[in-house]
Amino acid sequence: MPFRKEPAHTHGTVSRSAIVLVNLGTPDAPTRPAVKRYLRQFLSDPRVVEIPRLVWWCILNLIILPFRSGASAKKYQTIWTRDGSPLKVHTQKQAAALAAALEDRGHEGVQVRMAMRYGSPALPEVLDELKADGCDRIVILPAYPQYSGTTTASIWDAVFAHYKDVRNVPELRLVKHYHDHDGYIDALHDTVLAHWDTHGRGQKLVMSFHGVPRRTLMLGDPYYCECQKTARLLAARLRLAPDDYVVTFQSRFGKAEWLQPYTAPTVAELARQGVQRVDVICPGFTSDCLETLEEIAMEVKHEFEAAGGKDFHYIPCLNESPTWIVGMAEIAEQHLIGWPTMMSPSQRDAERRDAERGRENALRLGA
């Protein structure tokens, strides 16, 4: 099998470390053609839809893409900003803030890039750019706190597929999950309290996670259990009683049974039971996106009000909150351990001398 051409290399060049913050993805524009391209790539992933390929190809290309792309584009139009897709904008800002935070903590020269599993900037392209920049140690940091085969494992698939035809593969570290990491739970806690300090506290806190088919739980996917643990830890930090909050799952797709209880029916039932105000947070999303800004803040709000509820509050995602940037830096640091990212002036001088010696030796050898 032919390997791709390696970038030019000078012997003695100091290896560099990098972190790639990988989010799900987003269309390039809120238009039907752009959404169709995005959905085709996303829904063609066998990690996302575990249906026999031929059957699913017919469903996807003859039913979903022709009829759903336009409706999805209209939804994206309701949340699109002047800077573009909220998910992409927030992920870009998170990556920049993480780079600054790591530098402030003494990690010099660690590059931080953002990439998308589907759409742009594509993960393989970002990995190629890092190789060209001399990064030989890479941490892959998914934007998903809870592991699922439908999300995190799909990132691993893309990483391994990319390096299958690369001769000089960098050292890789993969962050599987951080659903119970103190920095992540602290950031969720601060986000909820900040909302309550400004708007008061509702009668019920709804923690809505993205859903997956129930069969994945039965087949061994830990996602459901990790969502429940996140919810328990957040409730404990907020000092909530069991009756003060409820865990739900949103974004159901198709006719199969998904993880329950479903968010929209649960919120509507709360309204029918006399709950006048609910606060909804989506802990599984680190950046606001279509599923939070349109599905929850618009559609689920409508369901709540139509059932008799009076006051619906959506609590924004972590986005670029200072506590979350600190939490991300702590998670990243744990996976940078052992790599030379923190150097004293004497160490920097020694590395420069080693690099110069390496170049001189290479020249003498005719390399």
UniProtKB/TrEMBL annotation:
One of its GO terms (molecular function) is metal ion binding. Fe(2+) binds at residues 210, 291. CDD domains: Ferrochelatase_C (cd00419), Ferrochelatase_N (cd03411). It comes from the Bacteria. This is Ferrochelatase. Its EC number is 4.98.1.1. It holds the Pfam family Ferrochelatase. It is an enzyme of class 4 (lyase). It catalyses: heme b + 2 H(+) = protoporphyrin IX + Fe(2+); Fe-coproporphyrin III + 2 H(+) = coproporphyrin III + Fe(2+). Belongs to the ferrochelatase family. It comes from Massilia litorea. The gene is hemH. One of its GO terms (cellular component) is cytoplasm.
